Amino acid sequence: MDWLAYAGDSADTNVMTDSQPIRVEIYSDPICPWCYIGKRRFHAALESRTALELEITWMPFQLNPDMPEEGMDRQTYLERKFGGAVGAKSVYDPIVDAGRSSGIDFDFEAIVSTPNTMHSHRLIHYSKQHGRQDQVTNSLFRAYFERGDDIGEIEMLVECATEAGLEASAARDYLDSDEDFQQITAQDMMARQMGVQGVPLFVFERKYAVSGAQSPEVFGQVLDRVVDEIGAAAD
User: Fold this and answer.
1) Taking the model in full, what pTM does it have?
2) Which pLDDT band holds residue 52 (cuts at 50, 70, 90)?
3) CA 20 to 30 Å from 193, out of 12, 59, 66, 177?
């Protein structure tokens, strides 16, 4: 099972009781297409496990930590990362196919700018405090990958926030400030120090780590393993 890793000695190995939710930390970036696919596949695994109670936290990981604050022209970005449109097509065609199977209509041609994602990570962090983190991540993924919106722009982020059920003026005030900037930066750096090299990464109970947009069946196996461990501990 090369998709599954044991978190090692740094993990919090306290066994929860059956009254506690399963903790899932998802390291992701809103401009990572496999993160969008992974989210859909993870939720597909949950559809047959409706009795499970989960505490899900989306954690920051910037694919391009050195991206200029204003972002970068998409074609320039593709040239630097993939050697141009031809190289990008070989990378994105399988993603389009994988997305279609998960009900995602990727429109990479609509993307004009590759953004710096610091503010979008701040919005995700902010939304956790208001119980709307899942909705905000959905909104950001849809905006960027299905409409080509620039999620580096504050006004676009406010639109994503309101689409997810957050109050527009409060979200704008937060994003216009520098609140939590240092915390998000530290969390991103800590993820790299922990050995996170790519996303998505799903960490269950800080014990099992699942790398990549695995199938719903794989996510289901991990969830079932965690539940079995809970039951064994309770017995």
Assistant:
1) 0.92
2) very high
3) 177
